[in-house]
Amino acid sequence: MPSGNAVDEGGRGMTTTEEQLEQAQQFERLKALVDKPYRWIDRKWDAVFWISAAFIVGAACDITKLLFAGDWDFWTDWKDRIWWPILTPFALVIIGSALQYIQWLAWRFPTGMTYTAICLWPLATLGRWLQWGNFVHYPMNFVWPTTMVPAGIFADWVLFKTKSFILTSVIGSAVFAFGWWVSNYVMIAPFLQPAQWMDRILTVADIQGISFIHSQTPEYLRIVEHGTLRSFLGETQYVALVFGATVTVAGYWIGQFIGRMLAIWPIGRFMKKW
Question: Residue 196 carries which DSSP code?
């Protein structure tokens, strides 16, 4: 007959085996919960994140544009051939460059410029419609905002192909400036048509500027049109476009500084600390 100690050891062995089996089953159940794809929660979280970020990104880009470009990107008669293609791409590329760096660093998505453009346009249009269309009763074809969607797509495409922020800052910024001008020239072209007004030949944009009271008309721009800028190729527009592309390079690196030092670097310091 087996001794009592042998029976106790056998019982403890069976108990240990059962406990291990139960622990293994519990581990498998927990592992299944961890590995379970929570598509509903993931998609809801993605929607909350991207929609919330859209308002912040769009507002930041619009405020930057208003600070740097100001009236040159607001009234139709201010959208001239000199300062408009110089200041506006410089202002637009700043936040787009910051988002481009953040999205490329986080997910390797070359979509920062395009995402910024898509966030900017509806918010800017809604703001112009509410503030100036409803409250002041200005026509939307007088206060319409510019679009940077085609320019943003081209700049993201350059980053996608080169995978280099240096090349994107040079090539992508130039493509961004020229793409912005071409896409917006389609919208400004009808307002540059000549029209007779009070026995004078003016553009439709100038007639709008005279008919609707707003900030002072930049008469000095008409003087610059006959100044030294015409000594090169006889046109101010081409010189302004080239100079605007050069200035956009500087704006691109300002955006890179914002993305690297004011967005990513503080997060990294906080994570290392805690």
Answer: E
Tell which CATH architecture fits domain 40-273: Up-down Bundle (1.20)
User: Phi/psi of residue 81, each to 5°?
Assistant: -95, 5
Long-range contacts of 265-269 (CB under 8 A, 24+ apart): none
> Torsion over CA of 55, 58, 63 and 68, rounded to 10 degrees?
170
> What is the number of helices (H) and of strands (E) in the chain?
12, 2
CA distances from 227 to 83, 217, 273 (A): 14, 18, 58
Question: Quick check: 152 and 87 in contact, CB under 8 A?
Answer: no
User: In this predicted structure, what is the pLDDT of residue 172?
Assistant: 95
Query: Which residue in 82, 97, 100, 85 sits closest to 185, CA to CA?
Result: 85
Which tens digits make up the pLDDT trace of 53-106?
899 999 999 999 989 988 888 888 888 888 899 999 999 999 999 999 999 988
Specify the pLDDT at position 249. 96
3-state secondary structure of 98: helix
Is residue 222's pLDDT more than 60? Answer: no
Give the C-alpha separation, 196 to 207, whole Å.
9
Q: What is the mean pLDDT of residues 146-157?
A: 95
